[in-house]
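Final report, results section. Input specification for complex C-07:
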Amino acid sequence: MRQSKLFSKTSKTSESGAKSVNHDLLARAGFVDQLMAGVYSYLPLGQRVLDKVSNIVRQEMDEVGGQEISLPALHPKENWETTGRWDSMDVLFKIISQSKSEYALGPTHEEVIVPLAKKFIFSYRDLPASLYQIQVKFRDELRAKAGLLRGREFLMKDLYSFHASHQDLKDYYEKMKTAYLKIFSRCGLKAIITEASGGSFTKEYSHEFQVETPNGEDTIFYCPCSFAQNKEIAKHKAGDKCPDCGKKIQELKTIEVGNIFDLGTKFSNDFKLTFTDDKGKEDLVAIGCYGIGISRLMGAIVEVRHDKDGIIWPEEVAPFDYHLLSLTDKGEEVYDDLVKAGVSVLWDDREDVSAGEKMADSDLIGIPNRLVISKKTGDKIELKKRDEEDVKLISIKDVLSDK
RNA sequence: CGGGGCAUGGCCUAAUUGGCUAAGGCACCACGUUUGGGACGUGGGGAUUCUGGGUUCGAGUCCCAGUGCCCCGACCA
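Structure output:
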């Protein structure tokens, strides 16, 4: 991609409403644009990051047997009345059509997928089943805030698993924990599995995946031995002895990037989703639900991985692998070679922009590898990692073989 | 939803006690000079000062109402 053709531009000044780090940096670097509180447009750079994160999530969900689908965002009122959530879920967006019918905009999809599952699941032979989608969700938050961290419209992966027994659900739930940790690790984050409330529709436990950052809105009590509880349900406090290992419990500010629920038979009971077991007996299907806020995850990565100059994208989610800066009129040949070799590169080919501005923009955008061509580099290319100070001179062959 | 703050070209800001044609920077257009850490000169275009009322000879500035955004809290299957 030639930067001279890039739709977005960087900005030296922060937007007056961009008080959070992720909103400020993502807006200044040209990844997102705020439409209103909690609602953002994703510009070309931002869309590339969302796609990168989504693909990581896809790979890991496919790895645990998930099948990707796409459910409607517009839901009939009736399904939400069936589960009682039309009235009880405060954040439900409700809309009225011109013929005065009422609909919900999906904040989550049990009300759609369980009726769908009824059309295909009849026998223990149809179980287990695991379905997921990556889709925009709507939640009428009273206070959207912190950039991408708490939106009213946001991108989410939600997976629903269906099981013939509760034990089978629990086994799958554990597999999902491992898959989630892998996803967050690939996104450059260390997630802490934290015990949390199951919410009002499951009496079972739930587990949140929390990432430590000073700007986080959640508080957890944590011990490195693997003990972690959300403050909401915690029976311990900072300084107490860890019930598992006896060391002192710490208090951490965190962002929740994922949450998994054992829903039991709540929704299968509401919709009468049953199956026939191998003895010919009818039983309710056990359901698990597993969410990752993709756009929130993008914001969380920025909150954790930045410095005074800008964003520091982890390799796997960066919008491009290489940022090639031409400080002379040379560079086109190198760019063409890289493109031909399939290297993901953003080429700063802008002619009327000073070297200093190109470097400042490069740091702000945060692509992990910076290549510079200038008078000083001769027929070599300078390589600098975004998160390192030292530079080295290499040849284009080194770039191609490195990939 | 309770409390607080803010609202001026696309963006960031200024404007004396209420007083002249709303000023500057960024960005944009033209020409020229520049190019290793956010260069510079000259010229140019771009504004119902959030909306609606009110006070006043006169309102960006004061008052009332509304709207939007940000922050704190509550809320957040």
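The first strand of chain A starts at residue 32 and ends at 36. DSSP finds eleven helices and 23 strands in chain A. This concludes the modelling results for the funded period.
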